[in-house]
Fold:
Amino acid sequence: MKIELSENKIFFNNGKFVQEIHPFWLRERVDGDEFLDKGTQQRLFDPSTMNGEIIIKKAEIRNGFLEVDFNDGVSSKLDIDKLEYEFSNKDTVIKSIIKKKWDSSLKNIKNFTYKEDFYESKEMHDLLVSFYEYGFVIIKNVPTENNYIVKFANSIGSVRRTNFGEHFNVKSKSNPNDLAYTTLHLSPHTDNPYRNPVPCIQLLHCIESEVSGGLSTLVDGYTVTENLKKEDPEAYKILSEVKVRFKFTDKSVVLEDWSELIHLDENKEFKQVRFSPRLDYVPMLEKNKLDLYYKSRKKLSDLYNSKNNRIEFKLTSKDLMMMDNYRVLHGRTKFDPSEGKRFLQGCYIDFDSTEGKLRHLKRKFKI
Ligand SMILES: [Fe+2]
Structure:
């Protein structure tokens, strides 16, 4: 990518095509002391109130800087590397991390270990990269006292509070308002599909586990849906087109949101799965369409529940698991409470927390 000048016009040339850079686009980026607050990197002027008739009176390239005089009397030296970075118009931090597909054959995934100054460490950077690759990560030896999970969440970003509280205690109890608070087997699901927006990341911290059952199970929704796309395009298509209603009710709230089971982004690529078959209500479509929908959902459910797609492991005291709730389904095997205690704590954070932390650590360690 290269910046070129011709008669007070500025062009960028990416080797494939040459395009003129709009003078106003450059004017918005002037970064002298009177135009940009150096501490916050926020503008000290409001370009939305300026008229767009900005013309370049003079332009030169010198020592890696583009020196421009505009017709409104403003002159600026713009760092060409920074401009070129903007031309790429891509998120080079998060989207450049390639998702790794996995199934039951996943072995030797790296666990991380909590230690002092963990949140500002290179280890935290590596942890977050691993999280975006696999959709989950396990951290050993995380302190358990005083609901430490909330401190953990707030040290990466900000805890996402819900009507279950800032954090929730996963123990069996009488009159539960969610099956999580029983001793039953929980089949793979994503959490809170009825919220708008759905919480992005679940943290689950094992405080005590004295029972032989209650294993954690994880399934990669990304791998399953990508495989479904190849093997059964018709099922993939209807599951990524029909929006269903997810609903949660208890005595103080009624939560409801609509989404496809496989939600694609604007490029028709994987974005999010929601799966919680105790809470979903498909609209009354015509019979043939529903025939196909039910057949396809059964297929998806079979894949999510297949041993071939599931990893199963035991969380022990002080293990904290971070799961991408838009990608990875989680569940657990049943357990017998007469064997002893099983106590986990959970909370949510959103993607801005992990993305913000990862960009910060990349900047800090110049990675
Ligand atoms: Fe859950």
Summary: The radius of gyration is 25 Å. Residues 180, 189, 191, 330 surround fe (ii) ion (CB under 6 Å). The longest helix spans residues 287-305.
